[in-house]
C-alpha cells in the first residue's frame, strides 16, 4: 500500500483496489461498490477488470448480494463458494451464469448522508479468503474509507470555490455598472436573493451568464 495518498483521489481509489489484489492472498479482482440512499442506485467507482462491475450490475438488478448487503447493512459478508451459497438466490444464479467468480469477501467502507459503500474482493476458486485475507481486507477497507472521505472533501471544496468565483464576478459587474462599493453590491445581490426567494449563487450565475447586471429595483 502506498505510504502517501496521490493528489488525484480518484486515481487513489484505482491504486487501492490494484494494491488489494497485489497484496491480499487469494484476491484475483477487487472493486468498490457505492449505493445511493435515494433510489438505491449502485455504482462502481473503482475496479480491477470487468467482473466486479458485472457483479455490481447484477446486484443493482436484483437489489441483493454480498456487496450490496455490506454497503447497506453496515457489516462484512463472505461467500466461500458461490456454487453452494444459499443467500441472495437471484444474484447467485446470474453471477454463476455470467462470471467465473466463486469466492467473494465484502467489507463495509463508509456511511454518509447520501451514500454507503463497500470494498469487495473476488476469486475464481472457492474458499479463497482465509483469516489472513480477511484481516488484510479490513485494513484496506479502512484505508479506502479515508480515500473516499478525501475525495468528497475535494469535490465540496472545488464546488465552494466555483460558487465564490461566480458570486465575485457578479458583484464586480454590479459595482461597475452602478458605481457601488463591494459591500453595497453584495447587499444588492442579497436583497434580490431574499425578494425572489432564490439562492445568491443562482442570482449571480444568471447575471454572469447573461452578462447583464440587474437594476437596483429588481431582476431584469
From TrEMBL:
InterPro entries: ANTAR, CheY-like_superfamily, GAF, GAF-like_dom_sf, GAF_ANTAR, WH-like_DNA-bd_sf
Segments forming domain ANTAR: 147-208
Entry keyword annotation includes Endoplasmic reticulum: no
A GO term for molecular function: kinase activity
Keywords from the UniProt entry: Kinase, Transcription, Transcription regulation, Transferase
Record bears the keyword Membrane: no
A Pfam family this chain is assigned to: GAF_2
Protein's UniProt name: ANTAR domain-containing protein
Source species: Williamsia marianensis
